[in-house]
User: Which sequence fits this backbone?
């Protein structure tokens, strides 16, 4: 790697089957920089060069983008890389047929299954409108609500530190003891929350 050292957040469980894909490394921003330096194929790249590299990547590694980021990289930069991957048709696997979903004539009241976990730009955490004091409090709260949650949607501010978002995701995964029927999603839509 050309003179840039990327210190990654601690990993989750190791995966014995290492996936093949495009690996993007992002270093912490330095000085007054907003974004960290990005490295693809051991070369420093900007977002436009990354898009070109994604487009021209060999098909056998075009199924996945692996983003390795230091903890202080802002969440927005990670999402920008994900957007470029989507635009370059990386990880897009459409079905080989058309799917038309049915319309429902009746409305049903189902118990709430989706819950939101917010991460602010300064790293504060809120479970819907209830602010969590620490990550430990968040874990305890999720543990108490575990039976009610089917989907936990993590909505991180675009300026949230990547390391903080990873901490929240890892703690949330630990609290979901059921592997079937539960999922954690990371919301990337451009919406604003709060006053």
Assistant:
């Amino acid at each position: 790697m050309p003179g840039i050292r990327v210190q990654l957040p601690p990993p989750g469980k190791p995966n014995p089957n290492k996936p093949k894909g495009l690996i993007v490394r992002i270093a912490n921003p330095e000085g007054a920089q907003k974004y960290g330096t990005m490295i693809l194929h051991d070369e420093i790249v900007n977002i436009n060069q990354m898009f070109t590299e994604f487009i021209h990547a060999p098909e056998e590694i075009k199924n996945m983008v692996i983003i390795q980021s230091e903890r202080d990289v802002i969440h927005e930069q990670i999402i920008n890389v994900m957007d470029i991957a989507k635009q370059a048709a990386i990880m897009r696997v459409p079905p080989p047929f058309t799917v038309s979903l049915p319309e429902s004539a009746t409305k049903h009241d189902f118990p709430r299954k989706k819950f939101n976990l917010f991460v602010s730009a300064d790293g504060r955490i809120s479970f819907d409108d209830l602010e969590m004091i620490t990550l430990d409090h968040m874990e305890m709260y999720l543990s108490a609500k575990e039976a009610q949650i089917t989907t936990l949607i993590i909505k991180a501010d675009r300026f949230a530190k990547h390391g903080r978002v990873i901490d929240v995701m890892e703690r949330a995964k630990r609290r979901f003891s059921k592997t079937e029927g539960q999922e954690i999603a990371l919301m990337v839509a451009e919406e604003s929350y709060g006053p």
In short: The first strand starts at residue 22 and ends at 26.
